[in-house]
Amino acid sequence: MSDDASTAQEQAEVAESVAPAIHGCPVTDSNGQEVIHASVEQYLDVVKALADEGYIMCVDLCGIDYLEFMDRALPDDIEPQRFEVVINLLDMAHRRRTRLRVQVPEADPTVASLFEIYPGTEAMEREAYDMFGILFADHPDLTRILMPEDWEGHPLRKDYDVGRIPVQFKGANA
Amino acid sequence: MSTTEEKLTGQQADNTQTGDAVDEVLDPSVNKVASTDDLGRNYHLFVAGTDEGDQKLKPRSQTTARELLREVGSVLRMSEADAANLGELPDDPEEDQTMIINMGPQHPSTHGVLRLMLELQGETVLRCKPIIGYLHTGMEKTAEQLTFMQGGTNVTRMDYLSPLNNELVFSMATEKLLGIDGDIPDRAVWIRMLLSELNRMSSHLLFMATNGMDLGAVSMMIYGWREREEVLRFFQEVTGLRMNHNYIRPGGLAADLPAGWRDGVLRILDLLPPRLDEYDILMTGQPIWRERLQGVGVITPGEALALGATGPILRSTGVEWDLRRDQPYMHYDELEFDVVVGSYGDAFDRYAIRLAEIRESMVLVRQILERIPEGDYRIQDKKVTPPPRARIDESMEALIHHFKIFTEGFKVPEGEVYVGIESPRGEIGCYIASDGGPNPYRLHMRDSSFVNIQCLPHMMRGGLVADAVAIISSVDPVLGGVDR
User: Fold this and answer.
1) Cβ–Cβ below 8 Å for B136 and A99
2) Mean of the per-residue pLDDT values for chain B?
3) Among A132, A60, A138, A159, residue whose Cα is nearest residue A101
4) Cβ of B300 under 8 Å from any chain A Cβ?
5) Handedness of CA B398, B401, B407, B410 (dihedral sign)
6) What confidence tier does A78 reach under pLDDT thresholds 50, 70, 90?
7) Which candidate from B38, B140, B179 shows the least CB-CB separation from A161?
8) pLDDT over threshold 60, residue B36
9) How far apart are CA B281 and CA B269, in angstroms?
10) How far is the C-alpha of B379 from the C-alpha of B375, rounded, in Å?
11) What is the distance between the alpha carbons of residues B175 and B157, in angstroms, rounded to a whole number?
């Protein structure tokens, strides 16, 4: 009897020491919001599993370029990469939200498209492609959406200058 | 190629002679790299015009099967049989029987600069593809250059028909990052709710106007604008501006409500009900109005959810989802109100929901009027709040503090946060990542119009061109929010 109790206690301790995980991905808490850190390989499977769990809507998908902020806080076993794809899922039945952060390497900025699971991500993925150059494999129509098609560069990348139109008198020696 | 590179390096070398460089840039015939920044690299685009290229709706012969499915509005996975049938449907005609035409970006019914490419067979819309970006001004990039203090001026201009909601969601996200989201004084929170409900009314009143205009009820346009102006007049009294207020700020509000504000609200509440009844006579019961809207642009709950549609579009399908009730923020959980839902998911439901929501907002405003407490209108946290004007005259430290907070801004701890609220058009979300500096490292606005617009191809399929106008109108997109 006492043995059982001690093992239960041990198990509880083990469970506490191991970082919480959802579908094999580390989970952190960001200002009271649940964040799941999935790798590029896990991404599609995790989203599928979450969709099956009741996350009925993909509210938001956006990219981030962390070029100037590589030392951000991440779980130990997650290696920071330059790009991140962040998606926000909503479960209406249980009134809960969750967020997925996926590290996307600069060398091969490709992640799976969620179009088959959430068709509503179509425009958002195009926006992330347009603004950051993140590629979404199997997207039905991966073209630019906000910029003209022949635009060079991806404007929201951190190494993309804000730019300016030449002004005649700016910087003149008065 | 080598000459271009030579020119490039040559120009970089004598970049100090900016005068010459500018002359060369302004000459459209010189199509070469003009300066090291990216705008210079793309400068020829401003001169020669833009081309949407692959973004455009392509002829059927050049469209892949998946793209075609999406463009004819197939959202939920089709069964094999349905997909096989698609090829034999009468709406899969020979290419020479159809034509692709542009509607917009300057069409008056496209609410700004929405461009729709429609494939028509006679008067029937077979395919539709919205092309956006004509109002893209890089506001998310701009947000990275502005401090959290200044950010409100930027986000308020995104969805310009619900500026106070934009400011609210931005402020709430910033406050959550700062960890002060629970400490905002009650008066500030209730005033925020008051303004956000009035904003919902003004936005829906404008929808009444444009919806009427698009369907030929031109006098409705004047009425809708007239009533909206009454609300905007109140905003002007409170914030100083009709639109783009920058009134709701991280930490609270820019100022307290002015004297006599209560009369201003009561005036709107007295003035609107008879006018809304007039709308009912003018439109709701009218056979022509019903003929034009009922059964037009139908969308099912499953499709709306799959497409990420929120707000009146989702509610028109019968899905009861309103963030004010289902994931309450501020003090909405203390108020009594109804979430209005439709049952058919057509354009008429969306019209009726918005009309009913104006009335529901008035119910909310009446309750809020009773509940607004006395107190401070902003948090007294030295970190985010500038010192009061009187203190600046007597204290050197206050003056320095005032100066620092407006020049450098306040630092926001590292982290990332997403906050979503119910705007007139659906969920508006603000995702901020902060690197601990005074500017957002990344600010992303999840704009409801941007997502809702994806419903258009689906709603339009098989309809008439005339219905297309009614459908765009019923989605109520704001292109400032779509393109950001």
Assistant:
1) no
2) 84
3) A60
4) no
5) negative
6) confident
7) B38
8) no
9) 19
10) 10
11) 20
**Pairwise CA distance, residues A155 & B140, whole Å:** 10
Buried/exposed code over B417-449 (b: 16+ C-beta within 10 A; e: otherwise): bbbbbbbbbbbbbbbbbbbebbbbbbbbbbbbb
Is the CB of residue A163 less than 8 Å away from at least one CB of chain B? yes
Chain A residues 42-71 within an 8 A CB cutoff of chain B: 56-60, 62, 64-66, 68-69
Give the model's pLDDT for residue B46.
56
- Residue B40: its chain A contacts at CB < 8 A? 163
Please tell me which residue of chain A has the smallest CA distance to B78.
A116
Confidence band for A135, pLDDT divided at 50, 70 and 90: very high
- Token representation of residue A136: 């979404």
Decide: B417 and B177 in contact? Cβ < 8 Å: yes
> Residue B394 contacts by C-beta under 8 Å, 6 or more apart in sequence?
none
Contact B177 A68 (CB under 8 A): no
Q: Among A15-19, B4-8, B44-48, B295-299, whose mean pLDDT is lowest?
A: B4-8
Cβ-count burial B399-411 (b if 16+ within 10 Å, e if not): eebbeebeeebbb
**Quick check: B326 and A95 in contact, CB under 8 A?**
yes
Least confident of A93-97, B46-50, B372-376: B46-50
User: Looking at residues B301-310, what average pLDDT do you find?
Assistant: 90
Task: Calculate mean pLDDT across residues B362-376.
Answer: 93
- CA distances (Å), B103 to each of A126, B116, B119, in order? 22, 5, 11
* Bridge partner residues of A65 (DSSP): A83
pLDDT tens string B430-466: 999 999 889 999 999 999 999 999 999 888 888 888 8
Q: Do A143 and B431 touch (CB under 8 A)?
A: no
A143/B54 CB distance under 8 A:
yes
Contact assessment for residue B135 and residue B112, using Cβ atoms and an 8 Å cutoff = yes
Give the angle B159-B160-B162 at the CA atoms, nearest 5°. Answer: 75
Q: Would you call B429 and A140 a contact, using CB atoms and an 8 Å cutoff? A: no
What is d(CA B146, CA A81) in angstroms, rounded to the nearest whole number? 25
Residue B14 in this model has a pLDDT that exceeds 60: no
Angle of helix B218-239 relative to helix B261-279, nearest 10 degrees? 170
CB atoms within 10 A of CB B86: 16
